[in-house]
Amino acid sequence: MTSQTEAAGLKIAMALSYVCGHRDELSALLDGDDIALRALEVAVGRRSANDVALTDLLDTLHTAVRGAGDPSGVYGAVSRGIMPAGVGDLNIVYRCPLQLCIGRSGHEVAESVPRCRFDPAEPALIRERLP
Questions:
Q1: pLDDT tens per residue, range 29-86
Q2: pTM of the predicted protein model
Q3: DSSP codes, the chain
């Protein structure tokens, strides 16, 4: 059975994965009022934020995104069909180099080299082929 802490950690990781993969779309949707997005990026970039702080920042961003017209917000991964990398009928996965989020499956990646948007250096996600 999954503990509440593990469930909360997975919720955070899934939301961070969504934000990382859709950063430009979220910024455009928020139309210049992206204070919540930038605050989250700063906190994750410093790598000092704990789960409580990340949850607060993600909740604020979720509310802003929903208010801007996306009914799923940043926690809507289930309705978007996102699942943790390595689950389902996947052959290629991309892992987060910072080990912050769940990464992305190969079919979620449009660009040739997906990058971590939470690190100012934007390192490439780590590509792996599943057995």
A1: 998 888 999 999 999 888 777 889 999 999 999 999 999 999 999 998 644 444 555 5
A2: 0.75
A3: ---HHHHHHHHHHHHHHHHHHTHHHHHHHHTT--HHHHHHHHHHHHT---HHHHHHHHHHHHHHHHHTT-TTTTSTHHHHT---TT-SS-SEEEE-TTS-S--EEGGG--SSS-B-TTSTT-PBPEEEE--
Q: Which two tokens stand for residue 98?
A: 């910072």
Q: Could you tell me if 31 and 68 are in contact, meaning their C-beta atoms sit under 8 angstroms apart? A: yes
CA dihedral sign, ordered 9, 43, 46, 28: positive
